[in-house]
Amino acid sequence: MNTQPLIQCENLVKIYQLNQQGGEAVEVQALQGLDVSVREGEMIGVVGASGSGKSTLLNVLGGLDRPTGGRAHVGKQNLGSLSERALDEYRRDKVGFIWQHGARNLIPYLTAAENVELPLTLSGQVGASTRARALELLELVKLQERMGHKLEELSGGEQQRVAIAIALANSPMLLLADEPTGELDSSTAQTIYDLLRDLNKRLGLTMVIVSHDPGIAKHVDRVVAVRDGKLASETVRVQKADSDEHHLVEMAVLDSAGRLQIPREYLEEFDIKRRVIIETTAEGILIRKPEGDAQSVDHSSMVSEQAEIESEAVQGPSKLNQAWSRIRAEIRKRLGR
Description:
Blueprint: E1 5-19, E2 25-39, E3 43-47, H1 54-61, E4 69-74, E5 77-78, H2 84-93, E6 95-98, H3 102-105, H4 112-122, H5 128-140, H6 156-167, E7 174-178, H7 186-203, E8 206-211, E9 222-227, E10 230-239, E11 246-252, H8 264-269, E12 277-281, E13 284-288, H9 299-313, H10 320-334
Parallel strand pairs: 3-8, 3-9, 6-7, 7-8
Antiparallel strand pairs: 1-2, 1-4, 4-5, 9-10, 10-11, 12-13
């Protein structure tokens, strides 16, 4: 596998403007400084809860959305600076897409072979070579005997195999899949993952697969977890010292600024709130809860109480002294005086 990155995202930001009733616009920050790198020929999975930003990342890498800030490079392309025409060419020639729903992948009134021919035709290829390429790809996904069937005549797994053939039509350098097994049973999903892995090895094709399924780690080289618009952790394969077998190890990730996302369950287990103590030990770096209640006060509750006090204070001079008295009493209480 090539060690050079095909995908390099640094401090990637994506903000959507949503219009509410009454004409008021609301900003939603889907990506909040995400860093990720994918080597050429690597097959990775991207997992995360709904709204975490994983599908937004896929849309940016596929040229469907422009980043609001940061850098997104695929190969030699800087996706944030491409013209509209260059972006169209990038989507057509450099990237293959596989979506969860068959109706989004296939045109229902075309046969499997005609669906595969369509992207070839749109890229300017015509004649017998187009049909030959379509048949070659259907054979590659082991579906040549279904070449004359339409969407409604194909099973869910067969539809996804045709979708993979369509995605490969123009020999892309990057394959993006958004929940490709989301509507399939476990047995059929296994078949699709096996096919993708075979194509990854045979063609040396870089693949990024978004999924809700944490079990995807069994099928890919590496899994990156996205939380709150940032890269939170990576699950990698580590070879056992005494055998050729591998086991999976989840690792936290430092971003380009040295920031670390600590899993929420760890924070809750050790009752860590806003601040921590960082110490060096013989084994590495230790992060621990500060001693004393005053240091572990929940920041959100402090902000809420401060806002309440400030609100009362601005109501008039008659309440100003009361507000300051409450502030001093609260400080003494939390400092144990």
